[in-house]
Amino acid sequence: MDIVRGKKGFIIDMDGVIYHGERLLPGVKEFVGWLYRQDKKFLFLTNASGRSPKELQLKLYRMGLDVDESHFYTSALATAKFLSRQHPGCSAYVIGEPGLYNALHDAGITINEINPDYVVVGETNSYSYDKICRASHLVFGGAKLVGTNSDLTGPSETGIIPACRALVAPIELTTGRSAYYVGKPNPLMMRTGLNMLGVHSEETAMIGDRMDTDIIAGIESGLDTVLVLSGVTSRESMEKYPYRPRVVLGGVGEIPD
């Protein structure tokens, strides 16, 4: 814990670490207060693509946390950045929420339901059979399939729910094409996070609730890792993986000394 507390920078997942749905998790206010008191550099790096950084800031503010918008980076922003660099001025058919649409728009990517360069899928509450069919037809027609993140499930106030990869799966199975996933554990997103912090990987810790995205992303990027059991991972399920976090905690409230 002394090694973790001594880090200059922290990259922190949100769902299952900071909140469940609209409920702030125990100890989060104390943890964020500690980050500010200790003058730590920190970034909330979330695979959720539905909200913009401003919306995430307002969500935390409603829960009693006042954090500047500059401390948020999402898989939607990472996806928009990836597409704009790979294919400037491209178009996409999108299955997702406003946060994803806005990120793509701001990166100069147009929405196209007829002959897009890409089919982009993120989390959404408006998922439907019609959208699966249209996406599949477009992929058959040559569009490249991209997922904002590879999470199969996510935590909510009512329990575990399907996440992005579960929504992409029917399109992959129908077309026989594998999607490219941009969010964690993709090193593209991790490198961007480190650049935003301006801190070397050896001086940074990754805090998350998922072994298959957060912890492996931290390990492969050279960060020390902290697994919290406040999300989708238990001590029992953690043992299924061939790699280990440096520290396992019940929640982030255990970090402040």
UniProtKB/TrEMBL annotation:
GO terms for molecular function: metal ion binding; phosphatase activity. Substrate binds at residue 184. Pfam families: Hydrolase_6, Hydrolase_like. Mg(2+) binds at residues 13, 15, 209. Keywords: Magnesium, Metal-binding. Its cofactor is Mg(2+). The active site is at residues 13, 15. Coiled coil: none annotated. Divalent metal ions. Mg(2+) is the most effective. GO terms for cellular component: cytoplasm. Belongs to the HAD-like hydrolase superfamily. NagD family. Catalyzes the dephosphorylation of 2-6 carbon acid sugars in vitro. This is Acid sugar phosphatase. It comes from Sporobacter termitidis DSM 10068.
